[in-house]
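Hey,
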Amino acid sequence: MDESVNRRDGWVTKRIRWGALLWTILFLSLFSSLFAAKREMRAVWMATVANIDWPSEKGLPVETQQRELRRYLDSFSQNGINTVIFQIRPSADALYDSQIEPWSLYLNGRQGLESNPYYDPLSFLIAEAHSRCMEVHVWINPYRATMFSNTSSLDASHALLRHPEWFVKYNGRFYFNPGMDETHEYLCHIVEDVVRRYDVDAVVFDDYFYPYPVPGETFQDLQTFRENPRGFSSIDDWRRDNVDRTIQAVSETIRHAKPWVQFGISPFGVWRHRTNDVRGSETMRGLQNYDDLYADVLKWMEKGWIDYVAPQLYWEIGKRNADYGVLLPWWIANTPDDRTNLYISLYASFPAQKMTAPAWQRPNELVRQMRLNRSFGEQVKGEMFYSAKYFVRNIQGLNDSLQQFLYSDNVLTPPAPRIASGDSAFFYVSPQPRNVRLERSMGTQDDGNDEVMLTWDAVCLDSLDHGLNPLFYAVYVTKREHLPDGTATAATMTMPSMTHPTFLTHNTAADLTPYVSEEGEYDVCVTTFNRYRMESEQMQSVRFVQPHR
């Protein structure tokens, strides 16, 4: 992802003419996009490599770094975002207090230099995000070790200086050799350290596996292949197996450490071309995950190694050489929803790439893509926007569209299919909070109205926290309808938005006054949303009556 996005665009596809069918879908999506499913991923990528998003420059004072993070999170929350994807390992370095790798130079200007006064950016971000009922997915680059060929600025603790035999130099950078057992063992050690020590919600890899091919240059792993072919006669198959082994090992490491932590992949938008594989997309003569990056994403989904996939569909609807309208249904058709959630990574950074296509010049291509996503119902379970600094600038009114329509209601993030499906799902549900109480303080508001406070007992099942303690609480406030005979009945939930939480909170008390200001009867329900993304049943509610004034 990050800085190399715009070099992936020079490939040709067959033009697929959807004609009336595509226009019909777009027309219908105009209406379906007004209502979101109750479960939806709404994420933003925050890139730290080369200071793309955060921190805005190297060596900023700690107070400034923290202020920038808070501003991002406040903006995300205002726009309905429920997840931040934070790049913690750009190139075998760390934006967290690693026990294994040095502090990133993008933090304080020199690799290995910790902040003064000391603080841990990842711990800080997790605390701030969770207090806003927002998840934190940590973004790790598995194989990239440096962004440059000169190693003089590397800290002595960097893996390249400690184990130079693990690395391959390619296109002016150093990469871990995926063919070595030491590589994926080391990576698993990194992942396990993060997952065990931090309250993260997911680990995600983006599209960088074997490096993007450079004409005239060969990745020098032939000797490794000859020394340990593992029964493969083809180096291409061997390379794919190297990445397969890494993905499987990382998946098992995460699930063994904390089974509620999800593992996601955000691959390049084309798996294979139809000309090379009958399962491929109607594209040709361009980059492919399978053949060029040696990433067999379909296999990882089929094996159940990953919990979500978020293909980077960074092209417009109708693009001749990479039609969003062609690739979206392909990913829908090839994602087994009983094993993997499908999200779409969208390109909020298009202005930085000086897009000149007409689709990007008129408001708003991203909104059209989101409406197309929703036209397929819940087969697409959300979006991830790349990247943060452009997302928050409200270019072409994107933030306005999210706040007013597309992300105007509260949603819960989707659970992993391995958790939510089958008979075992029952064991991952936490109990509903007890002793839900409403307290009215007479005439304490400026307008003379009563203040209504909602409180409940905290749910704490285990001091060691095996994922069942709440990440936050969801509060539902439903106004009852009155029948012609004057009796009241619970409001029928005829619209999808009626099933959404009224609000989410990290606390065990909330000011209910704004939600019960009109005369009438209300049902109020509080549920637990735990780290498995499972919500407690709505077994009990309390009644509130707002009298006529």
